[in-house]
Structures are given as C-alpha cells and as structure tokens.
C-alpha cells in the first residue's frame, strides 16, 4: 500500500429524519409535504451511516451491505456499528492509497493487516490486539463474499476459495469448533479471563464517581455486558418496586431483558442493588435531568444511566472512565473484567455447593446467568479459576528461598 498519511478521506454522514413543512423555507414546503407522504418499502432509520468518498460520491456497495444487515437481516445496532467501523477503516485505507475497492486483492489486505500490527490505533492510541486485527480482516473478507453473492462483483481474490487451506479433521475435533481457515488471519492464542480480586474490586468502586460506580456494581453483581447494562431503563427498576414491597424478606429479584443477539434472558439482582439504584434514580438522576431541562439541553430519557449533564451514558465513556479509574488505583481493569469477576466468583461458589452434594450443574447455571450461547464459552471461566493468578502468586512466594544461596 505504501506510506500513508492517515488523514481521513472517507466521510460518514448520518441519515437524519425528514424535516416537517414548518422547518423549511416556504418555497420548499410543498416538497417537504410530498416527501413525508412517500412510503418506502425498506426505510432506513435515522443515524444510518452513509459513506462518501473524498469527492463526495456515495460508496454504494458499503451502504448496500449495511442496509442489508440493518434492515433486511434486522441485526442489532451494535452489530451494524461494528460493520460500519470496519468498512470505514477499510475504504479509507483504500482511498488513501488510491486503490479502487473492486481492484483490491490479497496483497492489499495483507498490507492493511500489517499496518495494524505496526501502528497504534488512531482512536485509542494503543496497539491493536490480535483479536481486533483478525476481527477486522474477517469483516473485510465477509464484505467481499457478500459483494460477489449480491452481484456487485463478478469475482474477487478476497472471496476466492483458493485463499483457504485445509485444516486436518483431528484439529477440528480438538478445538471443538470449526476453525477460521483464512490465511490472512494471524495466529491467535486463547486468553483466559482475568478477574479482579476482592480488594481491587472494592478499590475500583470507591474510585468511581456516580453513576459509573453503580454501573460497575451492576456488572460485578449480575454479570451484565456493557451493551445490556446500557439497555436497562427506569421502568425495569420501578416496575419491581411494588412487588418488592409486597414480598416478605425477599433478597433477590429477577429482571428480564434482551441479551446479545436479541436473545431473551434474565439476570438476578440483589435487594441491596435495587435499593442503591432507587436512591440513584431519586437523587442523582432526577437532579441531572432537572438541570439539563433548565439549560434547555436535555430530553426526558428512559435509559437508566445518564451523566451529570443529563445525557445518556455512552459505551465508550463508561469504558474509558473505568480504565482511567483503575490506572489511578495502580492496576489495569476493563468493564469486561467486571463481568468476568462475577462469572468466576459465582462459578467458584457453585462448585463448592456442588461438591457438598447439591444436584446442580455450575457451568449450566453460570451459562444462563451470563447469557452465553455456547457452554465452552462458560468453560473458560472454570479454567480461569483453576489457574487463579492470585493463588499461584502465593504458592510461588512460598517456594522462594528465604536465605541467600539456599
């Protein structure tokens, strides 16, 4: 690809809602009225991304790909956002190097992959993880497979089966999954979850300000993903309030919600967590929304977690706040580690109960609580318990010689 300056050339314009006749000049009101009366078979929702080149030409295949996944296949907003980020980075890379998208070949994809190996992310400033690089490469390959199937291309080297190699059957049997066969992917080793120890969890919660401390508690006590946490609404909490008051000495309550992949599921939250959330709704949240209304900058939102300015807490903001708070505490932590901590602690406790004779399957219980689709995903947490770094550290410390020369 050659040396690149990496000044963004591809532009993304978000689709907005059509203006009402009262919002346009008088000479355009008839057109606005007529536009509002047109019914579309597959209308794109507001905020749908539309890609433009540096010369402001629509990148039609990218838009069509996102349209199919967002409208026809009804993927979640997170999935469409991920595809959009991958396509933006890929098309921007091609345009930086003056390469037409339909002329891209394996050498271009390898250069794109290698650039991520040698350069830090412009978004985070940190090196790309191998998992992220492979994820983007898979997204590009998936796009070209779709382009050939959909008739945008007659053929493409990036969609050819010749780019694959055969994996022996015994390797598939050992892994338990069908491995990714593309030669463009980097070798990736499985990493076990790294839960926080109790002292780190307490220190992190004490360092976080509202509402992020409460959000972290929800992840630590229920195992919610960040996307699921941000989908919680005030109604999810208040609808349990009457039922909670009518129950006698209830310690835990169930919240039904939509999990990853539009699967219906539930989490179990403690009464103390509900009590903390009630206080947050009545004090912090109400004050922040009232202040935003006074400044004419806020809207009444149903989302449970809002920031001090009354706007919705975004995924990126929450993740960054947790990461920076952990750095101030002297260790590294991510929002996913909060979820991993719940899983490992729950699994360890259930293992103890099962060994005492209770007829339960700890893996299946945690699988349901975590919203996992496959049991082998949950099994990673069981292996993480077996290789607990904190326990190993104590063992290694005891093996060190106490005297010089011993």
Give the class-level CATH name of the largest domain. Answer: Mainly Alpha
User: How many beta-strand elements?
Assistant: 4
Distance between the termini: 58 Å
Q: What is the helix content?
A: 40-55%
Could you tell me the CATH topology label of the largest domain: hpI Integrase, Chain A
User: Structural class, from secondary structure content?
Assistant: mainly alpha
CATH architectural arrangement of the largest domain? Orthogonal Bundle
Number of helices: 17
Unreliable residue stretches: 1-7, 162-181, 296-300
The CATH superfamily of the largest domain appears as Intergrase catalytic core
Question: What topology does this entry show?
Answer:
Blueprint lengths: L10 E4 L14 H9 L11 E4 L7 H13 L4 H20 L9 H13 L11 H20 L19 H7 L22 H10 L4 H11 L3 H5 L3 H5 L2 H6 L5 E7 L5 E7 H24 L20 H15 L5 H21 L6 H9 L4 H12 L2 H11 L7
Antiparallel strand pairs: 1-2, 3-4
Helix pairs in contact: 2-3, 3-5, 4-5, 7-8, 7-13, 8-12, 8-14, 14-15, 14-16, 15-16
């Amino acid at each position: 690809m050659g040396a690149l300056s990496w000044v963004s050339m591809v532009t993304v314009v978000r689709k907005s809602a059509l203006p009402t006749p009262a919002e346009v000049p008088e000479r355009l009101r008839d057109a606005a009225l007529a536009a509002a009366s047109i019914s579309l078979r597959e209308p794109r929702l507001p905020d749908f991304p539309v890609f433009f080149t540096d010369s402001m030409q629509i990148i039609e295949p990218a838009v069509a790909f996102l349209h199919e996944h967002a409208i026809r296949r009804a993927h979640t907003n997170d999935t469409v956002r991920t595809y959009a980020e991958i396509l933006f980075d890929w098309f921007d890379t091609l345009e930086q190097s003056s390469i037409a998208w339909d002329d891209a070949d394996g050498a271009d994809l390898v250069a794109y992959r290698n650039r991520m190996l040698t350069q830090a992310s412009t978004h985070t400033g940190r090196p790309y993880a191998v998992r992220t690089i492979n994820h983007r490469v898979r997204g590009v390959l998936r796009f070209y497979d779709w382009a050939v199937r959909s008739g945008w291309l007659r053929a493409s080297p990036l969609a050819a089966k010749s780019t694959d190699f055969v994996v022996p059957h015994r390797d598939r049997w050992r892994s338990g999954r069908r491995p990714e066969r593309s030669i463009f992917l980097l070798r990736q080793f499985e990493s076990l979850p790294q839960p926080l120890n109790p002292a780190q969890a307490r220190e992190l919660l004490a360092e976080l300000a509202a509402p992020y401390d409460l959000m972290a508690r929800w992840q630590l006590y229920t195992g919610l993903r960040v996307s699921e946490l941000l989908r919680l609404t005030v109604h999810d909490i208040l609808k349990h309030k009457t039922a909670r008051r009518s129950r006698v000495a209830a310690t835990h309550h169930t919240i039904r919600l939509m999990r990853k992949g539009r699967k219906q599921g539930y989490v179990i939250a403690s009464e103390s967590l509900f009590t903390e959330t009630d206080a947050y709704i009545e004090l912090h949240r109400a004050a922040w929304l009232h202040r935003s209304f006074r400044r004419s900058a806020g809207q009444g939102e149903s989302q449970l977690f809002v920031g001090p300015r009354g706007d919705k807490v975004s995924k990126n903001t929450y993740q960054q706040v947790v990461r920076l708070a952990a750095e101030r505490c002297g260790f590294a932590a991510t929002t996913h580690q909060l979820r991993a901590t719940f899983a490992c602690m729950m699994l360890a406790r259930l293992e103890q109960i099962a060994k005492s004779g209770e007829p339960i399957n700890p893996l299946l219980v945690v699988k349901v609580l975590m919203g996992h689709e496959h049991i082998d995903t949950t099994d990673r947490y069981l292996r993480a318990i077996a290789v607990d770094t904190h326990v190993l550290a104590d063992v290694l410390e005891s093996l060190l010689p106490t005297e010089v020369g011993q």
